[in-house]
Amino acid sequence: MLYLAIRQYEYIVGVADTGSxxxxxxxxxxSQPSLSVAITRVEQQLxxxxxxxxxxxxxxxxxxxxxxxxxxxxxxxLATELEQDQDAAQTWVLGCFAxxxxxxxxxxxxxxGDDAIPCCKWCERRHQLFPPAR
Length: 134
Fold this sequence. Notes:
Blueprint: H1 6-18, H2 21-28, H3 32-46, E1 51-52, E2 60-61, H4 63-84, H5 86-90, H6 101-112, E3 121-123, E4 128-130
Antiparallel strand pairs: 1-2, 3-4
């Protein structure tokens, strides 16, 4: 099971990139105490120390932290690519019992209009949804 959110990975990478909790918190639009607590929780979940930090001293990345941050960067890149993948956003299937589709589904989709489902159009002649022509 996955326990870490994408935002937590962003926090870790942000601290690594800036080298400072304060600068990372400002860049990520969170408070410094919240960021510190989030990192501590991630480290507890992973049972490993990512950063060595102390009052008045610079943040240091541990060997475990370097490995984790490298993988976190890959994950964040993949998550960004996934969100920007237009083909994934346009692929979907709508199902309905064939015996009621002409009476219930077709009129409902027609009432919704083309603006409600911009990536698809209704073909009344065949009673099937087709992606729009490219």
